[in-house]
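FORM 7B: Structural annotation worksheet

SECTION A. Query
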Amino acid sequence: MAEATFAAALGAALVFAPASRAVAGGDIQWRDRSADVVVESADGPHRTYRFSATSAAAGRTERSAAESQGRPYVRTGNLLFDGLFAMALADARLDEVAQIRDGSFDEGRPIDCICFETGEKWPYVWTRDISYSVDLGLASLDPERALNSLLFKTSGIRADVSNDQPRGATVVVQDTGSGGSWPVSTDRVVWILAAGDVLEQLPASARPALMRRIYRVARDTVEQDRRFAFDAHAQLYRGETSFLDWREQNYPAWTRDDVSSIAGGYAFSTNVLHAIGLERTAQFAEHVGDPRAARYRRWSEELRRAVNARFWQPQAGLYTSYLGPEPNSVPSASYDLLGLSLAVIHGIADENRAQLILQHYPLSAAGPPVVWPEQPGIAVYHNRALWPFVTAYALRAARKVGHAELAGELVQSLMRGSALSLSNMENFEFLTQQTRFEDGELSGPVINSPRQLWSVAAYLGMVENTLWGLEMRQGRLTISPWLPGRLAHNLFSGQRALTLHDYKTAGRSLNVTLELPRVWPEDGWLEAESVSLNGRRLTGPIDLRRLPADGRNEVRVTMRAAAGAPQAIARIPGEDSQHLTPEQRRAVFAPPPPVLLSAKRENAAVTLAWQGELPGATVQIYANGRQLAAGALGEHFEDRTPRGAGTVCYSLTQSFDDSRLASLSSRQRCVGAAQSISLAANDGSPTRVVEGVTQHPDWGLPSQQLRAQFAPPTTGWYRWVLEYSNPHGPVNTGITAAVKTLSARCTGSPEQSGSVVMPQMGDARWSLSTGFMFQASAGAACELRVGDGVNMSYFEHFARYTGGQGGKTGALNRADIAQAQIDLIAEQAR
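SECTION B. Predicted structure
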């Protein structure tokens, strides 16, 4: 993805009022829209702001936002900046509730919870939303409410479930989702990051007991994920991309009705979260004296190495968004900003890769889209969209790398979105930053909630954590403000001091004043030269335990200019996706994948046939995850590569010859001698025979097992899948993905165990489960067993679920199962 691809970027920059005008009022102009703010009234040090926004589509709308006693406020000389911070706090206040509700829980009745709700249109607590929100900045605003919200998303096992799961286990619950939830989606571990942030904000006396409680939840969660989501063959965690959980938006269209490939694949962002979560769990373990800390740290370090080895794409200078299931683990020709930003922030990407990521991931005039490239024919939601909370993580990454120019544009995007919308919205169209972009059937964002919690947290975190540089770690407050030079000129030119008043952290209150130099260059940034607390110079972080709880503390930071090396920004062309030139469209939208019609083995060759190749595009062919051909033409290809025994799986992508943007992958087709094996039940449960195949209908009670014998013809790695049907819920939501444990006991080898997932199908269609990989030697006698696992329906939290099966009606972890299929995927055991 060369920078030249985006060099023809169009669009106006954010225009701010001069600082002298901003003292009395502030305004913003963006294409055909504008917003302004004035002080409506003042009560002592606190103001009430009146915002007005004007657009051709909506006319003029207004909103007031008041600063309040006990909450932070800023004074910078820029009324727009000050007012937008007050608006974010007003949005946060609206998200503070005593009851939550969702139509799929308790039949929509209110549930008592002193919590943060997710937004005006999402009046519930969702695991990833609250976790990312707390991590971005809500922890300091109201730590007890944040803690309540996080603990609401934990659960023990239902009393009536009896299997080998530890009875005292308490885990983070994955929300309803693709294919029936966890472990199709496995990003619930982001909760561990948020729980650590809340710990930092609580009184010292409360931390030891809460640390033990949080550690137990983190420990039980990562242990469960290791058993049911970790793939020992790939050394990666399976599951869907984090937050990007509407599969058509960033996965191939053929996953719309079958998510087994998502459940069996490996998402970059989710693996990054697992690596961070394991490290945090190791830290918790050390605090409570549990020797398992070494194990969790080792798992984290091994995972970081695997992530860097498997996901990095040198030609793009980015980590791929996801890999397909083994053995055809093709990297997606797509990238997601959340995963990339988290990898930079948490050091999974080294310094060189971090710089490449921020130089190569493209930016529109409106801001950074959350996925790249955009997919054609898909409505605006994750596709073709900006999400402020992801922009805030990208801003943190830009600060870490010292990319001041990019950071300035990201701050402008966040300010612009709030000002023009008069709220901290869920998302925006990626070129126009509109909250509703009309494009026929592709219009969107499909849903867009005001005061979306993680957007609120993103704005607060931008000010407090990124610009003012306030960060709590192990009871100590680090103060390291960072202001991009050009941004500081645009916002604060002529000002000598910027103050964040009444900032609360860990039960202490501080005023933090940034003293600006008289002049500074627009390149580079401003950083701390010296810091003083109550008149005494500091040489390190502040130990808040030594500060009185009932006093106001004055922190003053003398800022100085710092030079940073110039860094590139990749630009997306165009202002409106409805009016792009053909060349611009090919630089923005990926081509659709070709359709692989057949893969037929004839003697020593395999012939592939496909359709859907576009003019000006060439096809790439993959075999077992490796690129076989880069420029295939003519809709036919003959693979004469010498191969040994075993299965070969093929898939295709296509890329534009000029922009080089590539499609997502086609559905794969495999050739090889998969062996079908009948399964026998241990309890004489009813079976049926269909076309000579024995089926076990609605099978999978905790006490049930299926068994089979297998004699491997060759030494190597084998993949074992189950033929199944799971009609217990739709493809897009629910909690009844069927999860079962598998074990292989082969003579001469220790027992190998793992799990498979059988996602919900929505109807009685048949499909194949995810795969379990095991090693076996030629001539060995292998005993295969299928036993019970665990899914989200087994947890007490979902006893109130009324939106589908497995909830109020009782736990359900069953599917129709026919025979097993076993195929050789790699000769020679490793």
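SECTION C. Observations
The two ends are 36 Å apart (CA to CA). Residues 1-25 have pLDDT under 50 and may be disordered.

SECTION D. Sign-off
Analyst initials: ____
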